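2024-03-11 09:14:02 DEBUG pipeline.ingest accepted 1 chain
2024-03-11 09:14:02 DEBUG pipeline.ingest length=160
2024-03-11 09:14:03 DEBUG pipeline.predict start
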Amino acid sequence: MAESVGEALRRTGADPHCLVVEVTEAILTEPVDPNLAHNLRTLRELGVQLNLDHYGTGAVSPPQLHRYAPQSLKIDRPFIGPLLRDRDCVRVTTAIIAMARTLGIRVIAEGVETAEQLALLQEQRCDGAQGHYLSKALSWDECLEWIDGRRETATASRAG
């Protein structure tokens, strides 16, 4: 896989930093496949970004995080949904954010549905969020329209 990606990057001249490969935490908790570890390492050496999805659902330890060295991880939605009513979810989320920041890994919260959840995550210095509070899922065309609208708003505010 990594060799194919490397060849495609060379052939197209695409910036590898613009490519994000997302793997689930579960795939890293299965018996370690030497090909997976090699592929992920090679992709990182090429400059491809690695994102660890659904963090908190498996049992990836800090040493494994360090070994695979993702640029970012996504805290799984079951920890985010009950943030406002479950102190244990707050503690776990806070610990994940602190550990990741210590390892130099960006943290994204999945499933943010309210302004209150977003505010709590911002207080904990979470780097990013995704969920219906920010936007519903968009088709490609809807996404391009949304980007164009943001661009027009930014241009108008700079001109005004």
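2024-03-11 09:14:41 DEBUG pipeline.report The chain has a mean pLDDT of 88.
2024-03-11 09:14:41 DEBUG pipeline.predict end
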